[in-house]
Amino acid sequence: MSEKEIDRLASELAKLVEIFRSGKHAGNLDFWHKGIRTFFRPYFGYQDGKVLFEGVVQSILKLNSEMLSEENIERQLVYEFLQNQNLSYLQQQWLYGDQLIKEAKEHVKRLVEFKACHDVYIPIVNLWHRGQAITFFGITFIEFTGDLSNNWKKRLKSLWSEEANASVHVLAKINITGDERRAYIQALTKVRESLDVFRAFCFPFGKYSLDWHVGIAGDILSYHHIPISIDNSHFISYHDVGNVQVELSDHIINKYDSSIWDLLYEINIKKRQPKRLHDGIHWLAEATKPDTNNAKFIKISIALETLLGIEPKDEDLKVRGITAMLAERAAFIAGKDYNDRLTIDQKIRHFYGKRSEIVHGGGKEVLSADIDEFGELVRRISLAIIEGKNVQKEYIEDSQKLETWIKEQKFTLPENKEALNATS
After folding, report:
1. How many structural domains are present in the chain?
2. The pTM is what?
C-alpha cells in the first residue's frame, strides 16, 4: 500500500468537500438521496466534482480490488464522509484544512485495508441432493430441508413464495472474500459457471431439455400456470415443465470419472486452460437452456466453431471452406479409428449444412432429435480436447499449430505415426 497514493486520494476527497460547500445543493439531505451515480448531473457546477469523485473511487478499487466493490466504495465515501461534511444541520461538526484531510485519509485507509469473508447461500431450483452435504467445484451443496428450510421461509416471508419453496431442494454454499456486494456478485458468478459445466456435459439438448429445468432461483423462469384463452371463450393453465428430479450425484457427478471433473474444474472454474475451450463449453451450456430449436442448433454450431478454432483469416479456409475444415478437425480430434473419423466427418458436414439453411433463411424448424445428436457430438469433441488423447490442448488456442497438427496427421506415413505421436 502506497502512503503517497493514500495522501493524494485524501487531498482529492478534501477538494471534493470544498466543491460541494461552494454550492447550496449538497447541504440539503434530498441532494444525497438522489442516488450516488446521479447526484452530480442535475447541477452544472458539480461536473468537475463528478470526475474527481469517480477518479477517487477507481483508484481505491485498484488498491483493494480483491475485497471491494465499486458500489460499496461509492456508498461509504458518500454516506460516511462527504454527506457528514456538507449537511447544513451538521455544520458545527465540519472539518477544515489539515483536519479535513486527516479525516479523509482515515476513510481511504479503512477502505484500502478492508478485509472480509462471507458464506453465501444460493437456492437452486429443481436440483436434488439428499443426505450429507457434498463439495464439488469449490461449492458445497446442502439439502434444503428441516430447520434450514423453515428458517428461510420464516425470515423471508415477503420474498419466499410457496411455489419457490416447492421447487428448491438444494442450497449452494460458497465462501467468498470481499465486501457483501462483491461477495454476492462473485458467488453468483461462480455458481452459474459451475451449473454451466453441469449443463454442457450432463443436460439434454433437445426434446427433454425443459424437463431439466435447473438453475439459480431467479435465473430460471417459471413456466407454471400460464393462462391461455382458447377461442376467447375459456382459459386453460398451460404447464410446460417436466417433472424430472435431477439428482446431483446420480445424474451429474457420477456421469464421469473424477479425472474428467478435475480437468473441467481447471478449465471452467479456475480458467487455467485455453480460453477458446472455456468459451466453447459456455455455448454448449447455452444450447441446453429453453429456446427455439433453431436457436439451440445455432448455439451448438457456435460451440463447435469456437472449440475448433475456425478463423476468417485462415488461408486454408478460403480454399477448403468452413464445413470441410470443421469436419476434418473434428474427425482427427475425436475419432478413435478410420471408420469413426469418417462417421464424424459425415455428421459434421450434414449438421453444418442444416446450420447454413437456418442462417440463410431457407431451412425448416430443426427436429429435437437433430439437436440432441448434434449436441452430443460436439460434447464428445469437447471431451476429446479436454482429455488431450489425440491433440494437445494448447493447439486449440493457436489455429496455426492446430492446422499444422492436422496436416501431420494426414500426410505422415503409417510407419512414422507412432514416432510422431510420441513427440507431439
Report:
1. 3
2. 0.83
